[in-house]
Write a structure and sequence with these properties.
Shape: globular
CATH superfamily of the largest domain: P-loop containing nucleotide triphosphate hydrolases
Order of helices and strands: HHHEHEEHEEHEHEHHHH
Keywords: Chaperone, GTP-binding, Hydrolase, Nucleotide-binding
Number of strands: 7
Structural class: alpha/beta
CATH architecture of the largest domain: 3-Layer(aba) Sandwich
Organism: Metallumcola ferriviriculae
Number of domains: 2
Family: Belongs to the SIMIBI class G3E GTPase family. ArgK/MeaB subfamily.
Helix content: 40-55%
Distance between the termini: 31 Å
GO molecular function: GTP binding; GTPase activity
Strand order of the largest sheet: 3-2-4-1-5-6-7
CATH topology of the largest domain: Rossmann fold
Strand content: 5-15%
Protein name: Methylmalonyl Co-A mutase-associated GTPase MeaB
Length: 317
């Protein structure tokens, strides 16, 4: 496949086109991903999440700059933005963020919409990670929309997850109770030059002290991204987590589990698409639903009927 060959050869336009193909569910997507898949699994994926206003974009911008200058590694950035209700695309585009990297051949930036995904990371985002991985990027940074129960999906895409906190952003304890403790591998206290930063860091460490069963204790790193302060401390903390995952075998285990989950996710999505077509094409499907509405059968019985006929190649297929 030519676009795959061009991408593997380092063509940036081919890389941009490939991400557009997976994002738009183009007909050639399956063939493209199949061609690229053998070349994936080498990049280290870092998730950057945190509440709106925490300075995630600035942190990603400056961290990328630091990784390029200090370590010479190539970086791919996926900025997951809310989806426009009008265009279906990301509300924030590449052109208004991270302008310093535009001319750097070692950095590729792409904004992507959530596309209504409850996890905040659509399947297209995860596929774009694979495209960047295959293109040879050493590090992939994935910046999510914000923190909350719906944002926990980042842990299913990233090798290490950085939760960005800021002083004065409300009750930090309540934020941590919302499930963020479980997904954080590293805490970055951004805007650490502001009043209350030390208290924020102390509260996070106190919460961590209560979790004695956790094998990896997430470090809490003060950062001032606008002043380039603490960036190497943050990157080194992430690398220590990587070393921990490598030494314990957890990195391989986590990646294998993610691949298994992805297969199940794709199967379920394709089943939904097939069933969705039956709403239009099969009167028998509608009859089954009508029986549920009339309380003649329950939803579980109806689903058994539908799945059985799909497996047997019956009218619902």
């Amino acid at each position: 496949m030519k676009i795959a060959d061009d991408l593997l050869a380092g063509n940036r336009r081919a890389l941009a086109r490939a991400i557009t193909i997976v994002e738009n569910e183009a007909p050639e997507k399956k063939e493209l991903l199949a061609a690229l898949y053998p070349h994936t699994g080498r990049a280290y994926v870092i998730g950057i999440t945190g509440s709106p206003g925490a300075g995630k974009s600035s942190l990603v911008d400056r961290l990328t700059q630091h990784i390029r200058k200090a370590y010479g590694l190539s970086v791919g950035i996926i900025a997951v933005d809310p989806t426009s209700p009008f265009s279906g695309g990301a509300l924030l585009g590449d052109r208004i963020r991270m302008q310093d990297h535009v001319l750097d051949e070692g950095v590729f930036i792409r904004s992507m919409g959530t596309r209504g995904s409850l996890g905040g990371l659509s399947r297209a985002t995860k596929e774009a990670i694979k495209v960047l991985d295959a293109s040879g990027k050493d590090v992939i940074l994935v910046e999510t929309v914000g923190v909350g129960q719906s944002e926990l999906d980042i842990m299913n895409a990233a090798d290490s997850t950085v939760v960005v906190l800021t002083p004065g952003a409300g009750d930090i304890i309540q934020t941590l109770k919302a499930g963020i403790m479980e997904i954080a591998d590293v805490f970055a206290v951004n805007k650490a030059d502001l009043e209350g930063a030390d208290r924020t860091a102390t509260e996070v460490r106190a919460m961590l002290d209560l979790d004695r069963e956790r094998q990896w204790r997430p470090p809490v790193v003060p950062v001032v991204s606008l002043h380039n302060t603490g960036l190497d401390d943050l990157y080194q903390a992430i690398m220590r987590h990587k070393e921990y995952l490598d030494s314990t075998g957890f990195l391989t285990d986590y990646r294998q589990q993610r691949l298994k989950s992805e297969v199940v996710e794709v199967v379920l999505e394709r089943l939904k698409q097939r069933i969705g077509r039956e709403f239009k094409d099969s009167g028998e499907f509608e009859q089954t639903l009508e029986k549920v509405i009339n309380r003649e059968i329950d939803p579980y019985h109806a689903s058994d009927i539908i799945l059985e006929r799909m497996v047997r190649g019956g009218s619902v297929s």
